[in-house]
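Weekly structure sync - notes
Attendees: PM, LS, DV (DV joined late)
Agenda: review two folding runs queued last week.

Item 1: First target. Sequence and structure tokens pasted below for the record.
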Amino acid sequence: MANQKPHISLIDLMTEARQELSGNWGIAIGFTVIYYLVSMGFGIVPFGFLIFSGPLLLGIVTFYLNLTRKGSHDIGDLFKGFDNFGNALLAYIIYFFAILFGLLLLIVPGAILAIGWSQTFYIMHDDPNINSVDALKKSWAMMDGYKADYFILALIFSLFSFLTVFTLFIGMLWLIPLMQTTYAKFYDKIKYANFPEDDKGEEDDYASHLVDF
């Protein structure tokens, strides 16, 4: 029992994310709109979704990690992932086809892979020199003991996404920044839990949030 990792309070995590977005809603919503416009543009290119999704995902986590860590964040962060294009592309290709194969077999294996590898691009942001395979492996190791927390968090956001139908999906402009900010904070929590020596001194005390949902 001594080695069992405590759960993260998901309610506290989402509350902190809302606090981080206070005063940043405008740029976060603008970032979301530009991301989807850029994605639509790349979608016109043959295999564009497969080629450009990895670098764009790396750009997304760059923006939200900068926001949650009180760093300098701007719309240009979306394109920072192209600085590590090769690794981001390979990581996404492995991620996409492995999860697709898992989903074709059964839903559960694909979902487990998606959750286990969910921290890959955050890891690549913090360590630009890590290769894609090692980033996937490190994500899997970091998520040990936290897959259930992440699964519940994903279910909560899935429910919220469904509810935005009553706003003609306009509510997604606020939900997506909340979701991405929460996921960024989730990464920092489990990173500190796994590698406390790498802590960069986030303002909030991780130990104060180690309670059950």
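Item 2: Second target, run right after the first with the same settings.
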Amino acid sequence: RMKEILDFLAQSPAFYVATSDANNQPRVRPFGLVFEWNGKLAFGTNTTKNVYKQLEQNPLVEICSFAPTGEWMRISGTVKFANDIEVKREMFRVMPDLKKIYPEAENDPTAICFYIDKGEAALYNFASMNEQFKITKL
């Protein structure tokens, strides 16, 4: 199912990541970077951003994406952070334009990845809420 999820997210120029701040206020922002890392659905961000700080305080996340086909996907779960050189190398391989933002690439201390540790993904069609599948141990 991982390939289906990645392919679906790739159809859209952005998908939306929701977290909550210290006051439990929901916060949503567009993301475009997603990749598979050791069988897990992984994303990249920066340790100076609010999304990172919010996920540190509350690791629950929800992601939503809409495709031109009229289908949409909701992914929810708990995240964990990965900061080792191998995951960062993969992040910069998947999105090489990030090197314009992070000239030190995988050696930049502010670049960080997070992945869905435990969660589920559901794929919906506006005509019928037909398919649901779960992601486990991501």
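Discussion on item 2: The two ends are 11 Å apart (CA to CA).
Action: LS to circulate a short write-up before next sync.
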